[in-house]
Amino acid sequence: MMGAVVSGRIADNFGRRGAMALSELLCLVGSLTIVFAKVAWLLDTARLFNGVGIGILSYVVPVYVAEITPKNLRGRFTAAHQLMICCGVSTMWLVGTIIHWRVLAVIGLIPSILQFLGVFFIPESPRWLAKNSRWEECEDVLKSLRGQHADTSAEAAEIKEYTETLQHLSEAKFLDLFKREYTRSLIVGVGLMVFQQFGGVNGVVFYANSIFESAGLSGRVGTLAMVAIQIPMTVVGTVLMDKSGRRPLLMISAAGTCLGCFLTGLSFLLQDFHMWNTEAPFLALIGVLMFSASFSLGMGGVPWVIMSEIFPMNVKGLAGSLVTVVNWLGSWMISFTFNFLMSWSSSGTFFIYCIICGATVVFVAMLVPETKERTLEEIQASMNPATSSR
């Protein structure tokens, strides 16, 4: 959350590349400290550095990717960010079962070093350059991104026109986010993050072992099955992002997580009443796997894609920080309360998550716009009327 609070301001002031470089330095410091730590407080400090670094990255990476990619590929490329997270987490889960945690921290240094060095070989966001009136660099970057023989004049003109319109507006302050013209964008961005987290994903993921064991299954086998299904489903979601659109993916994904929570809750309820004692544990396995697969399909990545698309440049830093803070706050709240809820009622916990996932479908159907194959400027102008060209 600390990283998320400052992520937007850092990305606005120092550029997208600068923000990524800073976050990787923080992660490097964190991982190195874990490797050499001899006392517990150093481990805590290391985790703090890693947390701040990831808080910054979680905002700036999808924003950067959205700002450099053409509209017909933007969803797929931005969703690939979530795919890489899924691959990284799954790999570390599997590797972490057989090696010491200090060795795991050494392995964690590798992606941080690669990305820190890689920052010096990638272009700055053309839209950030335009926002800072660096028009020639903006056009040069667009040429390098689209190919030297591509005609980028129309795209450059649209970015320039929209940016000049924004420059007539005063520099946004935090309270400006709550002005009427930004209401829909803020509700959509914050709402998606709330529903993403309060659907219970971190409770399910972080406590998968104990869920399977409580249901009478092998925690190790269940967790490995869950990890195995996440990556292919995330790949499917990434491929479909620019074909099916964001809204259908979100609604199908949320409906799947709703059904998964219902089946898991039903499994625990049947066991409470000593019914279907042989079949009920497998119902929990099916439910958790369905939840995990469905979440990976859309709810895991699409909210970050939409967050990177809907806010105009003059408020993107502040709005993105707020949305990212809400995401991590929700993550903490679900992680913290999950065990208490399970002690109160295992079935009740999953039925609560089921209701929230069902409400997500309604929220998406009523409020979330389809952003497929629209430029960022078109999306933002339609959602934030005051920033459209006059």
How are the elements arranged and paired?
Layout: H1 2-36, H2 40-68, H3 74-96, H4 101-118, H5 126-131, H6 135-146, H7 153-167, H8 183-198, H9 201-206, H10 208-214, H11 219-244, H12 246-272, H13 280-299, H14 302-310, H15 313-344, H16 346-367, H17 376-383
Task: Explain what the structure shows.
Helix content is 80%, strand content 0%. It is mostly helical and 390 residues long. The protein folds into 2 domains: 2-122 and 174-383, Growth Hormone, Chain: A, CATH 1.20.1250.20; 126-168. Helix 1 (2-36) packs across helix 4 and helix 3 runs antiparallel to helix 11. It is globular, with a radius of gyration of 22 Å. The protein starts with a helix and ends in a 7-residue tail after the last helix. The model has no long low-confidence stretch (mean pLDDT 87). Keywords: Membrane, Sugar transport, Transmembrane, Transmembrane helix, Transport. This is Major facilitator superfamily (MFS) profile domain-containing protein. Residues 1-372 form the Major facilitator superfamily (MFS) profile domain.
Structural descriptors:
single chain, 390 residues, mainly alpha, Growth Hormone, Chain: A, 2 domains, 17 helices, 0% strand, MFS_ERD6/Tret1-like, Major facilitator superfamily (MFS) profile domain-containing protein, sugar transmembrane transporter activity
Outline:
It holds the Pfam family Sugar_tr. About 80% of the residues lie in helices and about 0% in strands.
